[in-house]
Amino acid sequence: MDAHLYLLLLCIGASFVQRVTGFGFGIFIMTWLTALMPSYGEATALSGILALCTSLIVAVRMWRHIRWNHLWLILVAFMAFSAICIFALTQIHDTVLNTILGCVLIFASIYFLFINGHIHLKPSRSTQVAAGSLSGIMGGLFAMQGPPAVLYFLASETDKNHYMATVQTYFLIGNIGMAMVRAYNGFVTPAVGYGFLYGIGGVIIGNVIGALVFRRISINLLRTLVYIYLAISGVMILLR
After folding, report:
1. CA–CA separation, 17 and 25 (whole Å)
2. DSSP 8-state code for residue 122
3. Which run of H or E residues covers position 175?
């Protein structure tokens, strides 16, 4: 399959998952994006920029539901730790990063399939700092900052519209910050620009489809299928 078509399909799937569940763009697309881009750092840069566009669409549409008072502390922690980890990427070999990525994908799938429902966080300031810090580490290293942040926002927002608007604004602002740090470190290259041009169409298509099926599809079934996909992808990344 042509690499550009593969990228388009990956973006459709990632954007669809994010629109329906509120997160998962980076987790979904990073399963194979590292094989399509010249380097691991460029893959994280492209993933973050495309995810930024996905969140922007939702945040603009739902801006009236954003809970700004639940955003600032977790964002500060996220920005600090994600910047540190992006700088660290320049010192770590791509082979090591891909191995870690494969392990993280397998762990994430096991966590969401068997553990997630048993963990309930209290929306305290310490929870914000902890969630933001862990989210920053995962975002900076793997472009998949969603899981820790989602656990916090699910606890802090009782209304689904507030949840979706606030979590997408978090991803939007966070990805803008990470894009700037990645550009400073030389990860935003012409290859990332070309990838964006091919992928943005998939982002829009996936977002539209996700919005249409949001009220019809079983989210639990979708999540289960995505997590199984993650586990298989993680194993294949370790073996390739």
Report:
1. 7
2. -
3. helix 160-184
